[in-house]
Amino acid sequence: MGGKLPRVLADARNAIRAMVETGSTVLVACSGGADSLALAASAAFLNRKGEIRAGAVVVDHRMQPGSAEVASAAAAQCRALGLSPVLVLEVDVADSSEQAARIARYGALKIALERTGATHILLGHTLDDQAEQVMLGLARGSGTLSLAGMPAVRGPFLRPLLGMDRSAMEQICAHEQLHYWEDPTNTDPTYLRNDIRHRLMPVLREVLGEQVSQALARTAALARADAAYLDEQAALALLEATRLSTEHERRLDLSALRALPGPLRSRVLRQGISGLGAPTPDFERLSALDHLVRDSKSAGPIQLDGQVLATRVAGPRLAAGESAFLRLCRPSAGSDI
After folding, report:
1. Is 296 annotated as a binding residue?
2. Is 107 annotated as a binding residue?
3. Less Cβ around it within 10 Å: N or C end of the chain?
4. How many domains does the chain have?
5. Is there a domain that residue 227 lies in?
């Protein structure tokens, strides 16, 4: 592979080393794009050196003509790099949305883990992806966790390249003589992420400077640390406020909830709801729930996603000696609630 070793390739190899324990078995999620092929090449070097055992998984979403050929070409390059095993998994995507594709993709990646016994899957997201994710979070207006972007580690999924930009990935591919695929959906204006990438980010770089992606990525790192701390405190507060907890119901002491600072209380409510297997409520529903807790004259119920009902139980509805509580309830099978 030609020429002097570029610094970015050494950086990518070291980024993997920093996240993956020596001797681990990993899979590289490879789409055939520059980012994932650069990641594959970096992991393949460590595989050849015996530092890790590395294979690859290519997910064919079957959403575009020729997707099977693209998947086959990506798999062939991974094999040529020495990665083994290399799996190609086809998925059925519920609709044409990014979210549906993501759900199908991660389902396939988990299957790959089970089939191979690998401990981790390496994902090729870069600093530019992280900056775009922060801007998406700003657009949604959904708080600190949204601004925190993508985590470097989430369960078995690792993102070692979050500190490196997209141009570095292209340099690696050029050095390793890898032919990467340009996904045509990356220019589709239907997707908000593409508008951010191709229209908003160039303006931000022009106005705020070329280092704006790095600044946004630092914002993500700081926001994630803050969010993690607040979530830890919320988990403790939830435990203290909980009077009853089952698979389908949770009762939270109202006086304990009211004593919490607002930002902490909202996290406690979110965790209480997600603990019942329901989606995280949006801003409007969470605000309504907080109002129910604090000072609403209504006892509810408030209907939340995942069939969760929130009801305030107080006054004559209480048993003797019982204090007021918030009831979060998800009906069990056969329930008439």
Report:
1. no
2. no
3. C
4. 2
5. no
Residue 2 belongs to a domain: no
Residue 32 annotated as part of some ligand binding site = yes
Residue 34 annotated as binding? yes
Q: How far apart are CA 281 and CA 267, in angstroms?
A: 11
Residue 75 is predicted with a pLDDT of 97
Q: How far apart are CA 180 and CA 160, in angstroms?
A: 19
Tell me the pairing of strands 157-158 and 120-122.
parallel
Instruction: Looking at the structure, tell me whether residues 178 and 302 fall in a common domain.
Output: no
- The H-assigned helical ranges of 189-276 are 192-195, 201-208, 212-241, 254-258, 262-274
Q: What is the pLDDT of residues 291-334, one digit of tens each?
A: 999 987 778 788 988 889 999 988 777 776 678 999 999 876 43
Based on the domain organization, do 181 and 111 belong to the same domain?
Answer: yes
Per the annotation, does 31 bind a ligand? yes
Asked whether residue 11 falls in the same domain as residue 147, the answer is yes
Which structural domain, as residue segments, surrounds residue 302? Answer: 246-329
Query: Does residue 33 have a known ligand-binding role?
Result: yes
